[in-house]
Structures are given as C-alpha cells and as structure tokens.
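Q:
Just now I want nothing more than another pair of eyes on a protein record. Here is the record:
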Amino acid sequence: MSLLLQPADIENAEPAPEAWKKEAFRAFAAKMSDRKARFPCIPATQAFALGHLRYGFVARPWHPSAAGELGELVAEYGKASRRFGDYSSLIVFFDREPDEKDVLAYEAKFWDLLSEASRMDQAAWPADIPEDTGQPIWEYCFDNERYFVYCATPAHRSRQSRHFPFFMLALTPRWVLDRWHAHPARAAATAPLIRARLAAYDEAPAHPELKPYGSQGNLEYKQYFLRDDDTALTGCPFHRELKKEHAE
C-alpha cells in the first residue's frame, strides 16, 4: 500500500482516525489557493493547482517513530517522483504535539529528523554532492536523489511564509528546480514577483540567507529552516551516519 496520497485519497478517508490529516491538508490547500494573500513561492502554487504534489502524514515530531516514517515517505517518493509532474514536491504533515514549542525547538527537531531519517538510506552519498554542509552546493540527499527542504511550523509568526498550524516539510527534488531554471527568461521574470509577494506576505523582511543555490556565500542548509528573525545557525547540525562499508 502506498504511503503517498493525493487530495482525493485524503478527503475520502474514514473521518474518525483521519480528522487531523484532513484538517492539515485543507489548511495547506487554503494557503496555496488564497487569491488575496498569495503564497510567495509561485512554482509551489502552480504545483498545487496542477496536482503535481504528493502528500504524506507522520506521527508527532517528537514521537519515536517520526523519523522512521519520514524516511519511508522520502524513499517511496524518490523512486516515483518523476511520474508526478514537472513541479512535483513531497509535502509531509506531522501530527500536532500536545504542548507548544518555540521556533528554536522546532529547528533542533527539524535537523534531528533529517539526520535520523538518513540512517534508513541504503544508497551511497552522491559523488557530485559534498558531504560537507559548509560547501555552497551541499544539499540534502536520500537514495541518490537531491532535495531542497522547506520547513514550516506553528511557532512562526513574523514569517507567515514559514508558518503552518502543523509542523510541515516540503521536499523538492533538484531535478524539478533544474527544469524550472532551464528557462532563464521565465525564471528571471518570476524572481522579482516572488520577492514582491514575500514582502507583502511576511511582517519580517526577506531573510538575508535567501540566496541562489551554488552562489558565492550561499549555504543551502540555512534556507531549509528560516528563523522568525534574521539570525541563523553558525553550523549545520545535520549528521549522516556513515554506513559500515564506507567507514571501514
């Protein structure tokens, strides 16, 4: 049975055990389709409208099973993502925690989940991506697929572009981003529109770490989880456990 769902799968599920899942998806759908407060990322809204997104649901972020469930979702998605459309991403919703967390607590848990999920990855790290997170072209990899990872939390306030009532991740394959940037005129015309939408959407100005992938001074991991202010981590907490055959 597939772990990846489409909107109809979510809406047609039995109501009692799936109530929080329907609530999370409907909140996401409202955010992506709002015509007044337009979500800044134009490719994301297009992906939603075209039905290219796939959805997964995971236990509460601090639940012991959360990282394992996340790893299973990413593994299944990576094997099939090219069949879902040119703008595809994996959207992962986590069940609500019983108590409130602040932004920094969610930041720590975000990196913990990515690190723990990576332990399920049986593939070697891609040869063209450095394992050093301090390199401009580093990005999160799983099963030989490269991803940009976006995180939103209930604790964000000033950056509504990073606020969501549930802890949420969006994993976009690098091949999707490469296809978008393969049309330079379109990408160049869209970039200022995204910035304008971001300025209108967030109370805080654009985070200083929002820079193009691979550019001088860019560290990709700093864009994965943006804080509500302009501060950022001074070092990436991501830790990938070396497989035995690589460590020896």
